[in-house]
Amino acid sequence: MSFPIRAITLDLDDTLWPFAPIGARIDRVLHEWMQVHSPVTAAHFDVDGMRELRERSFVDNPDLHHDLSALRRLTLQQAFELSGGDLALVEPAYEVFYAARNQVECYPDALDALARIAARVPVAALSNGNADLVRIGLDHHFAFQLGSREHGAAKPQASIFHAACARLDVPPAQVLHVGDHVDMDVVGALDAGLRACWINRTEATWPHAHKVPDLEFDTLAGLADWLDAQAAHAA
């Protein structure tokens, strides 16, 4: 399939890097920190207990689903309150979390593919997560990073896609959104009038009969190859 693309918006978690190892590291590092700095909290909430508290906070606070940093701080505050810990430790604990959150290991194909893609068209990071591309060291590949917290609404809301297109100064129909999530990334982008590329690393079956991605690859390198072929064809 061939169509004009002038810019790309790119999801981060589970598109550039897998999130599961990050989440496991966060749980372990934060619990180890609690054991040293707030033993009463570590005793009250083991790794599974803290995860359950976080999940409960997510369910109980739908108004914060666009702001995972606020939800994390809320979970930490609740953990200290319920365990009798010191609330002054909320921000230090958050910084421990955030340092671990930004220790990412990209998929083997991703860094080279990202560099190739960014050499072709402007790329904007568009994420519901709270990764920091500056801390990670990948910001030089991106025109900008737009998160749901900064925007005030999360994918699949059309407004966050449209805000990215406006900053790119490219009409939605000429922007390709790239991501792993069927509904938040692909269907959200299509509903907002963008083109959509599904990065399907798990060989999942597409679940929707009437909405399909414009492109599908099992690696980000597949998209880089497609862009190279488009440029060669146009030359």
What can be said about the biggest beta sheet?
6 strands, parallel
Structural class: alpha/beta
Strand arrangement within the widest β-sheet reads: 3-2-1-4-5-6
Rg (C-alpha, Å): 19 Å
CATH architecture of the largest domain: 3-Layer(aba) Sandwich
Element-level helix/strand string: EHHHHHHEHEHHEHEEH
The tally of beta strands, per DSSP, is 6
Beta-strand fraction estimate: 5-15%
**What is the average per-residue confidence, as pLDDT, rounded to a whole number?**
97
* Poorly predicted parts: none
Level-1 CATH class name of the largest domain = Alpha Beta
Total number of helices: 11
Could you tell me the CATH topology label of the largest domain.
Rossmann fold
Helix content: 40-55%
Count the domains: 2
Shape: elongated
CATH superfamily of the largest domain, please?
Answer: HAD superfamily/HAD-like
- The first-to-last residue Cα distance is 17 Å
Keywords: Hydrolase
Protein name: HAD family hydrolase
GO molecular function: hydrolase activity
Organism: Stenotrophomonas panacihumi
